[in-house]
Write a structure and sequence with these properties.
This protein has 523 residues and is α/β, with parallel strands linked by helices. The protein has four domains: 87 residues, GMP Synthetase, Chain A, domain 3, CATH 3.30.300; 173 residues, 3-Layer(aba) Sandwich (Rossmann fold); 73 residues, Helicase, Ruva Protein, domain 3 (Orthogonal Bundle), CATH 1.10.8.60; 93 residues, DnaA protein, C-terminal DNA-binding domain (Chromosomal Replication Initiator Protein Dnaa, Chain: A, Orthogonal Bundle), CATH 1.10.1750.10. Helix content is 54%, strand content 8%. It contains 24 helices and ten strands. The strands form three sheets. A five-stranded parallel β-sheet has the order 7-8-9-6-10, with helices on both faces. Strands 2-3-5 form a three-stranded mixed β-sheet. Strands 1-4 form a two-stranded parallel sheet. Helix 2 packs parallel to helix 7, helix 3 runs antiparallel to helix 7 and helix 9 runs antiparallel to helix 10.
């Protein structure tokens, strides 16, 4: 007699037993992985068979099966073992029935009673179906470049870490099943975290899977400029055809549309057109849609329809992995030890890290690959000075409070005098701008709720756009915190180097002025 909630794995189970086991496993997986990750990778899965000490798990597509196999195999086996006695292993089956496919086609209630969406390449109306020849790799590359894609930005060159795991997973899912669950897919993060890389990677993967599809990558500023050109040259129809009759639209830096009502209106109708055709739209922004200043509520609502994913700051291990891959791709002569030292010094903005790597490689190549701690400190001094991203919330509140003459406890209180409110809102704004803390963490630091922080960020952006004195105050605070943070970090790094250096090459005559070099300008 087996205990409750445990079943034999050496003989077939009935459908009711399979469902019960999967319900139990799902509950445990959700607790371990979190709701977002579970829903993304296991939300459409199920236990379809158990026999001969082997279980079969259904998956909605090959991309899900591969990702689960590579990232969640151990945790899934651990949960299955709790309820299936003597289970030896399991496999993932991603063949779907027509009913299962139909259940995943619709992302919005208004589409539920319509016929299933046709394949993405035939979603626009055509007079007749034409057989199309396969495209060569060279032709795909040429087509991708014409679509605005950068061939250096692919999934293969994107280093996935804990900071970007969900973003990478959602990107693959959008390629695998466009126009369905992740519609739109909205990435947000501070600058230099990899959002643009993911947009291009989605575009390339989409093209390789559907070579004859129409893909377009564009920045929001270019979208606006082309709209102006269309109006001036009576080319509105051509503009709308270009942006609305695509299978995949990739829009970068959408925060540029804030405060530009005419462009927002055109983007709103473009967005709706793509959604109506059940094609895919992927958007990137430096902030949440709700934080974009002067963005129409109806557009905020549209951007929040699908899946919103934050690309967070990479941790030390991920940062090192990014630089090692960059080094290998570019054949740079930089040791792992130097890469570790770069990551310790430079704020973990991926673009800055890569710039620091190239700069260091240039100098190391002229110094026989040897750099002392002091030399590295001098070489990266300007980048170390940008460590405002490492600031703590308490430090920001203290600095802002000193500037406005407001005590930190007053900013954390419920008092709402004009002076306290302005200081509190500026501190919240800078906390979002200069740190990687989430909305919830910032709100908790001020004893406020999530909505208060969102409002403070929008209000500060709007006020600073009209008030030169407030703009100057914010810029002064930025510089003060960057300077103070940089001095502290430089002192710490110098102190570490003095303790750790036992011998090294004197830096006299070995420092190189890169200020006017071509390589430096590329950074």
């Amino acid at each position: 007699m087996l205990p409750n909630n445990q079943f034999p794995s050496d003989q077939p189970l009935g459908q009711g037993q399979l469902n019960k086991v999967w319900d139990l496993v799902s509950g445990d997986l959700r607790a371990v992985l979190g709701d977002a990750t579970f829903d993304l990778w296991f939300g459409q899965s199920g236990l379809v068979n158990v026999d001969e000490n082997h279980a079969v798990i259904s998956s909605p597509g090959s991309m899900w099966a591969i990702w689960i196999e590579e990232n969640f195999r151990d945790v899934l086996k651990e949960q299955l073992d709790k309820y299936l006695i003597d289970l030896k292993g399991f496999s993932l089956d991603y063949s779907q029935s027509k009913d299962e496919q139909a259940s995943t086609e619709s992302a919005f209630p208004e589409f539920e009673n319509q016929d299933p969406a046709p394949p993405i390449e035939s979603s626009r109306r055509r007079k007749r179906k034409v057989e199309k020849r396969p495209l060569s790799e060279e032709e795909i590359l040429e087509k991708g470049k014409k679509c605005g894609l950068n061939e250096a930005y692919t999934f293969e060159s994107f280093v996935v870490g804990p900071n970007s795991q969900l973003a990478a997973a959602a990107s693959h899912a959008a390629v695998e099943s466009p126009g369905t669950k992740y519609q739109p897919l909205f990435f947000h993060s501070q600058s230099g975290m990899g959002k643009t890389h993911l947009l291009h990677a989605i575009g390339w993967a989409f093209l390789r899977l559907r070579p004859h599809s129409k893909v377009l990558y564009v920045g929001a500023e270019k979208f606006a400029n082309e709209y102006i050109d269309g109006i001036r040259n009576s080319g509105e129809v051509a503009f709308r055809t270009k942006f609305r009759e695509v299978d995949l639209l990739l829009i970068d830096d959408v925060q540029f549309l804030g405060g530009k009502s005419g462009f927002q209106r055109e983007f709103f109708h473009t967005f709706n057109s793509i959604i109506d055709q059940r094609n895919q739209i992927v958007i990137a922004s430096d902030c949440l849609a709700s934080e974009i200043s002067h963005l129409e509520e109806r557009l905020v609502s549209r951007l929040q329809w699908g899946m919103t994913v934050q690309v967070e700051v990479p941790d030390g291990a991920t940062s090192e992995a990014i630089l090692r891959k960059k080094r290998d791709d570019m054949n740079l002569e930089v040791t792992d030890d130097i890469i570790t030292k770069i990551v310790r010094r430079v704020c973990r903005n991926v673009r800055q890290l890569e710039g620091a790597l190239i700069r260091t490689a240039m100098v190391a190549s002229l110094n026989e690959g040897v750099l002392t701690e002091d030399q590295l400190d001098d070489l990266l001094a300007d980048m170390v000075g940008d460590n405002t991203k490492m600031l703590g919330l308490e430090e920001i509140k203290r600095t802002v409070g000193e500037y406005f003459g407001v005590d930190v406890t007053e900013m954390e209180s419920k008092r709402r005098t004009n002076k306290i409110t302005e200081a509190r809102q500026v501190a919240m704004y800078l906390s979002r701008e200069l740190t990687t803390h989430s909305l919830k963490e910032v709100a908790g630091s001020f004893a406020k709720d999530h909505a208060s922080v969102v409002y403070a960020v929008k209000a500060t952006k709007e006020k600073s756009s009209k008030s030169e004195s407030l703009r100057n105050a914010i810029e002064l605070l930025r510089r003060r915190m960057a300077r103070d943070g940089g001095v502290r970090d430089r002192q710490n790094s110098i102190s570490r180097s003095r303790h750790s250096l036992t011998n090294g090459v004197s830096d006299s005559g070995s420092r190189i002025d890169l200020e006017n070099s071509d390589a430096e300008r590329d950074f």
